Amino acid sequence: MSGAGQSRRIARSTAVFSAATAVSRVLGLVREMVSAYFFGVTGLINAFTVAILIPNVVRALLADAALSGAFVPVFSDLLEKGERQRAWRVASTLFWLTLVVLGGVTALFILLAPLLMRPFGDPGGDYDLAVGLSRVLFPIVVLLGLSGIVVGILNTYHHFALPALAPVAWNVVIVLGLLLGVPQLDDESAELYLYAGVVVLGTLVQLLLPIPWLRRLDGRLTMVIDWRDPAVKRVLVLMLPVTLTIGLVNVNFLVDTLFASRLLDPELAPAAIDKAFRLYMLPQGIFAVAVTTVLFPTLARFAARSDTAGLRRALDGGMRQIAFLLVPAGLLSIVLAEPIVRLVYQRGEFTSDDTVIVAQCLQAFSIGLVFNGWMLILNRSFYAVQTNWVPTGIALGAVALNAAFDTVFYRLGIWGIPLATSTVNVVAAGVLLVMMRRRIGLEHVGRTLAVVGRVAAAGGVAAGAAFVVWFGLDELVGRGLAGQVVSLGAAFAVGALVYLGLARALGLRELEALLLLRSRRDDPSEQR
User: Fold this and answer.
1) Tens of pLDDT along 102-113?
2) Residue span of the structural domain in which 137 resides
3) Alpha-carbon separation of residue 191 from 17, 51, 186 (angstroms)
4) What phi-psi label fits residue 220: left (phi over 0), alpha (psi between -120 and 50 degrees) or beta?
């Protein structure tokens, strides 16, 4: 395939993945809106927020992202060398090992739940409820571990849309479960147990949905456990630093929650930060995760071929694309944080006072948005070249730095915790970039920084225009639901048009990557 053809394929895959992820993220916002309507951010919902945190950290340590980050480079390498049968045998072995090992881990942590919840005090004012909810939620660990293998296989074969759409089903199950179930219950604790139950059910659906598509590939998962294969051992060896890296990132969130629950307000701070984080992750998931997920198999294949020049070009292009998408998104989130939070959450048990607090947290998170996106692709680049201990060491330093910043910034209020997170993202992204530059060169850093400067200028003007439009319409159309949709929708539309116009005027080539999608039929290599 020609270079232009490959650029079109990657751009098309990114667009498809972004669209699928956007659907999932929008439904995720609907899920959070329903949750906020029924539970708000004060009281017992904080017990749920803390209860799901521990399973999520264990999942990150041992399950989906950790497994995929170690599995995809080895699986890609075997396919690249023509060892298809062995590649699928390795995949099968890891699938069944994951089921056995994570099943045991899940059972163990269900037993240890009271000890795991103890450091958080009385989140939501009900320690026993937090313990019970965590026990219901722990099975998501093994389910997402298996999902990591399935998604890794599909992504290696450049199938991105279906894995991105599987979370849509997850969100649909949860939303329907809450809408149909909560009104039938009178006790808030019972409602939260229902919430936990439908999360587990949705995770099961998310695992099962992509499995039929594996049958369309050139191999099959079989019932085999061949731990003697050096490739299996290689995945496990690579998984250790990936696990530690991802785990340490989630340890940061644990530390943040400890500060929020123990030193701020246990009946408000954890849930307020979590609600802001969900909004912050919307552009992250649609753009940075899309670019990184689509690019990762390509990076792994370049590394398998020892094509350092191709690896450099792909990584440079990915970082510039993430900046092009996330810098304006972060600026818009900062200037329009309060109307965004008001539109998404402020109804039912979620009050105007809650809106102010969550908006402040969203602004603080958004400062580090692009840096977190860069961390995603830089970490995956180290995994692609199978130099996994470098991001692990950096993540370890970030834990200590995050705790130090939390100690200082929590005194600013609840929003100080997200501000500490953003500050750590800036530092960690810079260190990762320096280390990757030493590893493969990255001679185009100057070009990337110049692009970021132009992107920031265009994004700043666009964000200012969006705020002016929102401010004018807010007075005119009011703050009813329809009025908020009109004022905020118009602000986003004007901001996007101004940004795209300035991007074209400034000659930002990252815009051209999107336009390549229109001309894919012009390249014979793209014909099927």
Assistant:
1) 889 889 989 998
2) 3-522
3) 34, 14, 8
4) beta
Whether 528 is covered by a domain: the verdict is: no
Flag whether 344 is in a domain: yes
Q: Would you state the pLDDT for residue 28? A: 82
Q: Residue 510: which of 453, 451, 456 has the closest Cα?
A: 451
If one counts the domains in the chain, the total is: 1
For the entire predicted model, the pTM comes to 0.68
Q: 360 with 413: CB under 8 angstroms? A: yes
Report the distance separating Cα 211 and Cα 75, nearest Å.
Answer: 18
Rounded Cα distance, 39 and 230, in Å: 50
Residue 460, domain member (yes or no): yes
- DSSP annotation of 522: G
Structure tokens at 430: 């810079």
Helices in 264-351 by DSSP H: which ranges? 269-283, 289-304, 308-335, 337-345
Q: Which residue shows structure tokens 């079109």?
A: 8
Q: How far apart are CA 170 and CA 150, in angstroms?
A: 16
> Each residue of 54-68: pLDDT tens digit?
787 777 665 555 566
CA distances from 388 to 237, 385, 432 (A): 10, 8, 12
Contact present, 137 and 200 (Cβ < 8 Å):
yes
- 527 falls within a domain: no
Judge contact between 322 and 377, C-beta under 8 A.
yes
pLDDT in tens, 480-496: 888 889 999 999 999 99
- What is the sign of the dihedral through the CA atoms of 180, 163, 514 and 367? positive
Count Cα atoms within 13 angstroms, Cβ side, for 395. 24
The answer to whether 520 and 12 have CB atoms below 8 angstroms apart is: yes
Q: In this predicted model, what pLDDT tens digit does every residue of 323-380 receive, in sequence order? A: 888 999 999 999 999 999 999 888 877 888 889 999 999 999 999 898 988 888 888 7
